[in-house]
What does this fold into?
Amino acid sequence: MRDIEQILTEVKEGALTAEDAARQIRELSAQGGFADLGYAKVDLDRKRRRGNTEVIYGAGKTAGQIEGIADALIRHGQENILITRLSEDKSDEISEYCSRRNISYDYDSISRTGIIGRKREPGGLGAIAIITGGTSDMPVAEEAVRTAEFLGNETLRIYDAGVAGIHRLFAHYEEILSAQVIIVIAGMEGALASVVGGLVSVPVIAVPTSVGYGASFEGLSALLSMLNSCASGVTVVNIDNGYGAAYQASMINHIQGAEP
It folds into this structure.
């Protein structure tokens, strides 16, 4: 979030008018760090508090609402915006919005994510490995990949390496050991998280997916299996929450003062 000093510096350099500066300062002081759009209170202070800017959850919002939120973030200095759970029809409208403003935009239909602006340069202590049990888990995995890369992380994909053919996992053993954080994404019975957790010494974040037949209960079976993992160091996020897993993995990967 832009602070008052940044706003005044832009006025001094001629990049911002005094009227625009006064409006932005009023918003910062009167609204406690958020822009009230009526349908949304856009958090302008999140980067200072949390280290990363606000992300737009696209499901349930109209394209116009998403554009309004993006407008508020851009107006207050946010150069890069991630939009999750974004349908293709809404993405088409947002693409037109970005084109009118000469802003770069990238949409991925598998992960249903849109990125306004550019991804950050990779940093952190090392790579985040994203491992899936099957190809059907790819939408959740790609949401994790896109989120992790947006947040400035190098990623490593290892897909379709589930326990039904565990030799496929061991074929990537050296790559897995090179990762700083591992995200394991699996449906069905969710056993892959425990297997990986028993092989590595780094944090493992498990993501149950809603992939599976009837008795998987749309991911509940995998969720309970992962929560009951006997491997130490395995934590679990909600069903299909690739975004949440990647955000947590990025925080771990960017811990200051930690040794790789």
In short: Residues 31-116 form one domain. The chain has two domains: 31-116, 123-253. Residues 18-30 form the longest helix (13 residues). The longest strand covers residues 123-132.
